[in-house]
Amino acid sequence: MTFEELGLAPELVRAVKELGYELPTPIQAMAIPEALAGKDVLGRAQTGTGKTAAFMLPIIHRLRGGDGLRALVLCPTRELAIQVAESARDYAKYCEMWVGCIYGGTPVQKDVRDLRAGFDILVATPGRLIDHLERGNVDLSELEVLVLDEADRMLDMGFRPQINEILRHVPKKRQTLFFSATLPNDVKSLAYDSLHNPVSVEAAPHRTTAEGVEQFVYPVDGRKKTQLLLELLKRPGMDSVIVFTRTKVGADRVIAQLERANVSAVVMHGDRGMKERVKALDDFREGRARVLVATDVAQRGLDVEGISHVINYDVPQDPDSYVHRVGRTARAGQTGEAITFMSPAEIGEVRAIEYHIGRELPKVELEGYGFGLTTEDRPLPTLDRKAVRASRGFRMGSRARKELSPEELAALLQVG
Prior knowledge:
This protein is α/β, with parallel strands linked by helices. It has helices at about 10-20, 25-35, 50-65, 80-90, 110-115, 125-135, 150-155, 160-170, 185-195, 225-235, 250-260, 275-285, 320-325, 345-355, 385-390, 405-410; strands at about 40-45, 70-75, 100, 120-125, 145-150, 175-180, 200, 215-220, 240-245, 265-270, 290-295, 310, 335-340.
């Protein structure tokens, strides 16, 4: 199927061809026709699947020839919002359409000037949009399309109250396009509140890591992880390093230890204010800090060039998170290195990651840090799914966290 066959306007087809798009990705081929038909869409898709075009192309097609703010896209982070707005402007190159972008960490008065000039499509982070709604700077009464992009990430960052408030300001009669990489209970609840008779689409997740990333696993006694981190940071070439922890408490603990060791470092996680996160990212991007310590709040939408190393201080419990984390390095044709610290308690998580990406990760056991990884302990890339689930400690029963497929959730949301 081509973009012409999807039913898009000729000016949109021309724009995407000039951007080098030859054929629609699976999520685009599934979502665009449904969105063009005016249906609500529940999409399960991760970053890198082409989901921005999947919702933005039908929005631009629908809004051609009109006037006023008629589409709103909510994004969890400043970086993702900027990226989505830039893509929208590229797609709308041959359409008379204005795309705005507002997010925290910038002067409010600049937003006010831009908002008064008028937009057809507004891309925003929830917190900054609420600020402008309270000031009376934004009118959403004529909105035709609402997009919730990376809904799971927005909820992870604590934006549910802001999203609820925004939903009270938008017309009940509207089209809603809802995209999330995962569908846990809190995301299902948000989908129920915002969608009406949705069509379900799902893109197969990327299971391969970026080319150019050298990946290693360092077996280490859990009590020596910080000591190993400081040792590695002494190596030449450790110029721009992201260190991922599993929890916010863990991130704060690591940043405190790095500061005591006189390592220039900043931290990003959900308990930090927007201004603090923006400043931390700017300091890291501009080289004032050599190390960024972050939870998974930073794994998506974080677009920083020249990251030399990604270090998984804690092994991610979700294999897809591993793919996203290591994808922060070796961008735009560059090379990079991803290092994962594996304590004895984390062997199962590494096992699951290796199964997920289809290959074994080389082990590097440094003298004085390892725990004697035996042949029997080595993660294997050919485990069956039952073994992977067992190795990750899955417990089935009433307390298990069940995640519905998009099809199951869409069926539950058929409300009339």
